[in-house]
Write a structure and sequence with these properties.
Length: 256
């Protein structure tokens, strides 16, 4: 038989009430018996889970949070779409971005330029293709008779990725519907995808950019031309001749 002190300890640990008969010398009380409640931490009503009668006891493990469904963008105009992008939290990149980089340029342009994920500098300024890469892109466009303000420029992702890494498949999937709506609103004649990451993502390909350029592709019902990214051309000027050929092809398509 357990000693009384140890018995009380086990009963208390299991949350079982301990009943005692009152001793004669005890002070009078309203009831003939006193209930000694087990010592438990005080909880608020909100801390107590609600269990339906007959339901199985639940564990302390929370159920996984379901992903936020993607909004219907079919009726969004430019300001509404940009506002949705600014408040987007579907892929987690909102935790590391400074701001979204929606796009810039003429919203009735015939040429849509699509780059990769925004750089750290673009994230800081909220504009695509800034700095040296932006200056080179402007020069490339001017070479075929276009000013930067004559085209529309955006990226496959609207948020900067940590450490500038390549976008993850889930990030591309969440951001793709924003890009599709931009294309629907813009109705461009030609899409110019600059850089390996952008070209591979849009064309669902693992081919090198050297294999994707020089070919007339199709994306979302539009003609797509893939070419080298301005940053790549700054590090490898010998490829500028091929980029020029791609630009001439864009120029012919716009004129046709």
């Amino acid at each position: 038989m357990l000693p009384e002190e140890l018995r009380r300890y086990y009963l208390d640990a299991m949350g079982i009430q301990v009943w005692e008969a009152l001793q004669p010398e005890a002070a009078p009380v309203a009831a003939a018996q006193e209930v000694v409640e087990p010592v438990v931490a005080e909880k608020s009503v909100d801390d107590v889970p609600m269990v339906e009668p007959g339901a199985a006891e639940s564990t302390a493990v929370d159920k996984p949070t379901q992903a936020t469904p993607q909004p219907d963008l079919s009726s969004c105009n430019w300001p509404e779409l940009e506002a949705l992008v600014q408040h987007c939290d579907q892929c987690g990149l909102q935790a590391t971005r400074t701001q979204t980089v929606f796009g810039a340029g003429k919203q009735t342009a015939s040429l849509l330029v699509i780059g990769e994920a925004p750089t750290l500098e673009e994230d800081a300024q909220g504009e695509p293709f800034v700095g040296a890469a932006g200056q080179l892109l402007s020069a490339m466009l001017q070479a075929i008779g276009l000013q930067r303000e004559d085209v529309y420029i955006t990226s496959i992702l609207k948020c900067h990725t940590p450490d500038g890494r390549d976008p993850l498949p889930a990030e591309l999937a969440h951001c793709r519907h924003y890009l599709h709506r931009q294309i629907e609103l813009l109705q461009p004649k030609v899409i110019l995808a600059v850089g390996r990451v952008a070209a591979q993502a849009l064309l669902d390909s693992k081919e090198k950019i050297s294999a994707l350029r020089g070919i007339q592709h199709s994306y979302s019902g539009r003609v797509l031309i893939a070419s080298y990214h301005p940053v790549y051309l700054m590090h490898k000027p010998s490829e500028k001749r091929k980029a020029w050929q791609d630009l001439l092809q864009v120029k012919r398509l716009l004129a046709g």
